[in-house]
Amino acid sequence: MSYKFRSICLNFSILLSFLLLLQAGFSQSNFSTIDDFIEKNKKALGGEVIALVWKDGKVVYRKETSEDFNSKTPVWIGASGQWLTAALAMTYIEENKLTLDTRVNKLIPILAKYMKGYITLKQSLTHTTGLEGEKTGIGKLAPKMKFESLEEEMEHFAKKKEIVTNPGTEFYYSNVGMDIAGRMMEVVSKKTFDRIIAEKILRPLKMRNTTFFNDNMSVNPSTSAQTTANDYINFLAMLLNNGTFEGKKILSDKAIEALSTPQFPELPVKYTPKGTEGLHYSFGAWLMEEDGGKGTVIASPSFGGTWPFIDKKNNYAAILLVKPGSGPEGKEMYTKFKAVVDEALGNGR
Questions:
Q1: Exposure letters 222-238 (e unless 16+ CB within 10 A, then b)
Q2: Residue 336: burial class (beta carbons within 10 Å; 0-12, 13-18, 19+)
Q3: Residue (of 20, 19, 1) closest to 9 by Cα position
Q4: What fold, for 34-345?
């Protein structure tokens, strides 16, 4: 090899190394906008924050403000678990074990006995059952379920929950419908909810540290989910990738479309949590942005602090996770977080 050729190779290697260093520095400066946002709002977020951003098949940003509260730490996520419950229901529909029009009278006789058997699976998954919701409001919901099983909870619903209106005629956000849907799935599978969601959703997505058991060792499909940021980002990645995770189809294209479509958008809203006013609801999630009647940005927040979302326009997923009860003040904090993520990823440039 000639001296001249070796010199050219050396110069090229130096140039390549410089470009790689420049690229790394550019990426770091981009993501510094998210770092700045979290540092600036850390107190408002409760002091301990986890943020993950997933794009192009991998986590491209990770922020953990505490060694004791990190991406592997199980955290109660409250209503954010409803997205998982809705996804589970879609697997039963795909297997023809249930339909959205299946009525509870075929599966939960105690509800039929008390004139509540007309409720459908779709109405259960979309907070349109017509049954009385929590009188304390959604902000008071916590995983303190006093029932030993969903079967026992259905007996309580049958005997104690008043019929406020006909099913499918108004939207009232509560934990009632999701728990009815969970019980319907238990009956058709002859297995408990924690077992079926592990079999069909959690294990295929490698969500090894996710459970629906609460501190009382009870299972509640609407509010008792505990997960880690690492686990939940796998679920978001699957949704963003049209139902596929690591080459395996978890949900069909039809199911993904259903999860992105507003359900009963024309109904009057009796109650909706603060920060979701004016938004349409799909199955287990809110459509934060829409285009042509389809959700392009979809989120399933727990109003105690968890904000997981997917942005189908810009092809990324993210989760902002804080300790329960110390979280962001609803939609405003989420909007600011999403804005800095968009800026970091160069969206809209």
A1: bbbbbbbbbbbbbbbbb
A2: middle
A3: 1
A4: Beta-lactamase (3.40.710)
CB atoms within 10 A of CB 59: 16
Distance, CA of 85 to CA of 183 (rounded, Å): 11
User: Rounded to the nearest 10 degrees, what angle do helices 82-94 and 176-189 cross at?
Assistant: 40
Token output for 196: 């079926």
Domain ranges of the chain: 34-345
- Quick one: tokens of 287? 């459509």
* Angle, alpha carbons 146-193-255 (nearest 5°): 130
Tell me how far apart the alpha carbons of residues 89 and 122 are, in angstroms, rounded to a whole number. Answer: 10
Per-residue b/e over 305-318, b at no fewer than 16 CB within 10 Å? bbbbbbbbeeebbb
Answering whether pTM is above 0.85, one says yes
pLDDT in tens, the chain (349 residues): 454 444 444 444 444 444 444 344 334 447 899 999 999 988 888 888 999 999 999 999 999 998 899 999 999 999 999 999 999 999 999 999 999 999 999 899 999 999 999 999 999 999 999 999 876 444 444 444 578 899 999 999 999 999 999 999 999 999 999 999 999 999 999 999 999 999 999 999 999 999 998 766 688 999 999 999 999 999 999 999 999 999 999 999 999 999 999 999 999 999 998 889 999 999 999 999 999 999 999 999 987 778 999 999 999 999 999 887 654 456 788 899 999 999 999 875 4
